[in-house]
Specification:
With about 750 residues, the chain is of the alpha+beta class. The chain contains 21 helices and 33 strands. Strands 12, 13, 14, 15, 16, 17, 18, 21, 22, 23, 24 and 25 form a 12-stranded mixed β-sheet that branches. The model is unreliable at about 460-470 (pLDDT under 50).
Length: about 750
């Protein structure tokens, strides 16, 4: 066994080997394998790489961009070259967001281990940094970019250029005075740490300082009583404010002296305001806090459509990587479209299109490996089955053998009047598909009631449907049918469902059908969704993998609202926003108004409900911090504005925005109050969007943050912006004051 001493030495050796640099093979396919030189920079935070033929032009990526390191043949690309390169020399870097993986092969197992263990150790270091260290880190990363001759120093001219790159447009005289103050060595240049100090002086938060002084008895610090008053008056914390004040001082105050005196300096106050406790999202609702013992039909379930696709629905690649990404985001319902493949092996792809094909066995193996990494609650696998009886038998064998004990096959027919709860189904995989009904069809035929048929009706590009008006029939093998936990059924009417439907029967609706029922029979649809699971999927016309707004479907209680996870945008922001609560478990308990059968809620007329309690929502947009550049040109600086968007029942849909601020991405101040009347708070989502104003064309997107209205904390709060694909763009944030008043 390795002692801590040898572990430590080994860790040091790994980093030294990485700093010395190494040739690794970058693999994109069986045909594309190129040598690249990779080396860890001295900052231990950046990896530089270049082609073997490039003389000096290194490109770089940051360790903080890496989400995971996978060992061995754990990607489709590396599986494709498994006969050529042994697993102990292969590894994959998985990046955050939608950036592609990097598949690498080292010359020896020892070299591969140096990189695998080295990068993991550096990632762990990054994870353990506090907010203040992360900010210093971010500034240092910029410094490294600007220090072109790598002597560890920059002069005022270089500093000005760097600030432009960082989106800072400043008064030159003011900046020059601060530069001289930061230049402790009086050399006319700044080293790394001096530049961090210079940047902090330049970006001093005057609005936070004013707030701090409003509550400070002596103008220098906040005593425990001062801080308690702030927490009670502004953050509306009530009874526990006094004890909480002391906890915050212990947690965020960097000065030992102030901590011993039970007081907080401006630095501690700013650290608290930018911490998770100072966030707009109530931390108590980020962990698992909901009752998970109610029937499945009482929960919204994070769901993906055509999960295997990385891009569009016509010619994009299919990949097991798409399943990994969706499952890591907490998705709890994935889709598998199965078709006959060569050599008796079923394949997964978007039928009758040019999308690439992947083996069903690879998909099931991936599901088995990643099903419960992000959430322990049940995973539903929605199966579109287009296979022959022979290949269906192969499907059944794979599902049984690969999923093993995770697969739940016992039926709920006749056992109970309701589906089991997420709690009762923890770490179980539920298959949903067509079930052979012996009594109706001795040959095991079932009507073709699947999504593909529905999509063909939607799609103008589809081939002509059968002219005889009959449903096409499909033979279904008993072994596969017996594995289905949820039965796909054709929807006849709400009346038919109420009197005849079993709890494990599920209908799928295209977005247009679901919208039609919501408008024309909203109350019946809501009642149906208190008992039955409903799945909604995008229209067949969306060949570009675009998404529909999921909120309309959630308003009537639809649980499985499937979206194209691979497509970034407002729709996925809303999905991520809803499912960020409750431990990112992929299950969110529907509001009581959508679970009660005796008192139905009509989302078209929210004011008619018995316990109607609308609220007035005030958002004072105060300031922004370190907003990223949109255009990478040196001279370009953003003109930011903030838009607040409300999504929920139709009456609540609203948008308002601030004016834009000229040329200031690093500390814009708006100080504008936007206000909204919200009729159904428990169904509302709030999306904050920051854009770069452009009078000649469409504004450019800078960042966004979306959360359920019920998870908002009142008072002075920061919201930490996310990129288009939902990843953090640290340290970009917006500072707001929130007030919610019952009407």
């Amino acid at each position: 066994m390795e002692t801590p001493q040898t572990c430590c030495e080994q860790g040091h050796q790994n980093l030294e080997a990485m700093k010395a640099g190494m040739f690794l093979r970058k693999v994109k396919s069986r045909m594309w394998k190129r040598q690249r030189h990779y080396k860890l920079q001295e900052d231990c935070k950046t990896i530089a790489y270049k082609s073997s033929w490039a003389i000096n032009s290194y490109s770089t990526f940051s360790i903080s961009d890496v989400e995971a390191v996978r060992e061995g043949h754990q990607s489709e690309t590396l599986l494709g070259v498994a006969d050529e390169f042994p697993a102990d020399r292969c590894f994959t870097l998985v990046f955050r967001g939608r950036r592609g993986n990097l598949d690498l092969v080292a010359d020896s197992a020892k070299e591969a281990q140096a990189w695998i263990k080295g990068i993991r150790a550096l990632m762990e270091n990054m994870e353990n940094m506090d907010e203040s260290t992360k900010l210093d880190q971010w500034i240092s990363d910029w410094f490294m970019k600007a220090d072109l001759n790598k002597d560890g120093r920059i002069n005022f001219k270089e500093a000005k250029k760097l600030l432009k790159m960082m989106n800072v447009d400043m008064n030159e005289e003011h900046a020059c005075c601060l530069f001289v103050m930061a230049d402790k060595s009086e050399t006319g240049t700044l080293v790394d740490q001096e530049f961090v100090e210079f940047y902090k002086m330049l970006t001093e938060r005057t609005e936070v300082l004013d707030l701090f002084q409003d509550y400070s008895s002596d103008g220098q610090s906040l005593s425990q009583c001062d801080l308690e008053e702030f927490l009670r008056e502004e953050q509306l914390e009530g009874e526990s404010s006094y004890e909480h004040a002391l906890q915050l001082i212990d947690r965020y105050e960097p000065s030992d002296t102030a901590r011993m005196n039970h007081s907080m300096t401006i630095d501690g106050f700013l650290m608290y305001l930018t911490s998770p406790e100072g966030s707009i999202f109530n931390p108590e609702q980020q962990g698992l806090f909901q009752d998970m013992s109610q029937p499945l039909a009482h929960y919204y379930i994070s769901s993906s459509h055509n999960t295997y696709l990385m891009e569009d629905q016509l010619k994009g690649p299919s990949s097991v990587e798409a399943y990994i990404q969706a499952l890591k985001r907490g998705c709890r319902c994935v889709e598998v479209d199965c078709w006959n493949g060569p050599n008796g092996e079923p394949v997964v792809y978007h039928g009758h299109t040019l999308t690439s094909k992947i083996l069903l066995t690879d998909v099931i193996t991936t599901i088995a490996n990643y099903a419960f990494k992000a959430s322990e609650y049940p995973l539903i696998v929605s199966i579109e089955n287009h296979c022959s009886i022979e290949q269906q038998e192969v499907m059944a064998r794979y599902f049984r053998d690969i999923l093993g004990d995770m697969l739940l096959t016992n039926k709920v027919d006749g056992v109970s009047s309701e589906l089991p709860s997420p709690e009762a189904l923890k770490r179980k995989i539920l298959l949903k598909g067509k079930i052979r009904n012996e009594s109706e069809s001795p040959t095991g035929e079932v009507s073709d009631e699947d999504e593909a048929a529905e999509i063909n009706k939607d799609s103008l590009a589809s081939e002509s449907p059968p002219t005889d008006g009959k449903k096409s029939k499909q033979n279904l093998c008993k072994e596969l049918s017996d594995l289905m936990f949820c039965k796909s059924v054709h929807f006849h009417s709400f009346e038919h469902s109420r009197t005849s439907a079993k709890p494990n029967e599920m209908s799928s609706f295209s977005e247009s059908k679901a919208r039609k029922y919501s408008k024309e029979a909203g109350l019946d649809f809501a009642l149906h969704n208190t008992r039955q699971l409903t799945r909604v999927y995008p229209s067949g016309m969306r060949t570009d993998s675009s998404n529909y707004c999921p909120v309309d479907m959630w308003n009537t209680g639809c649980q499985i609202v499937a979206l194209n996870f691979q497509t970034a945008g407002m729709e996925m922001d809303l999905n991520d926003g809803l499912f960020t609560q409750n431990g990112c478990s992929g299950y969110v308990l529907k509001p009581e108004i959508l679970r009660k059968r005796e008192r139905l809620f009509d989302s078209e007329n929210p004011e008619k409900r018995e316990d109607y309690h609308p609220v007035q929502f005030y958002v004072k947009v105060i300031s922004g911090q370190q907003l990223p550049k949109v255009k990478q040109k040196d001279w370009s600086i953003v003109d930011p504005l903030v838009r607040v968007e409300i999504y929920g029942v139709p009456l609540d849909h609203a948008k308002q925005e601030t004016k834009y601020i000229d040329n200031n991405g690093f500390n814009p101040h708006w100080n504008e109050t936007l206000q909204f009347k919200i009729h159904t708070p428990e169904l509302a989502l709030v999306r904050f969007v920051v854009e770069d104003y452009d009078k000649a064309s469409r504004n450019d997107f800078i960042g966004q943050y979306t959360l359920p209205f019920t998870c908002i904390q009142p008072g002075y709060r920061h919201l930490h912006l996310l990129s288009k694909d939902g990843t953090s763009i640290h340290p970009s944030s917006i500072f707001v004051h929130i007030k919610i008043k019952e009407l």
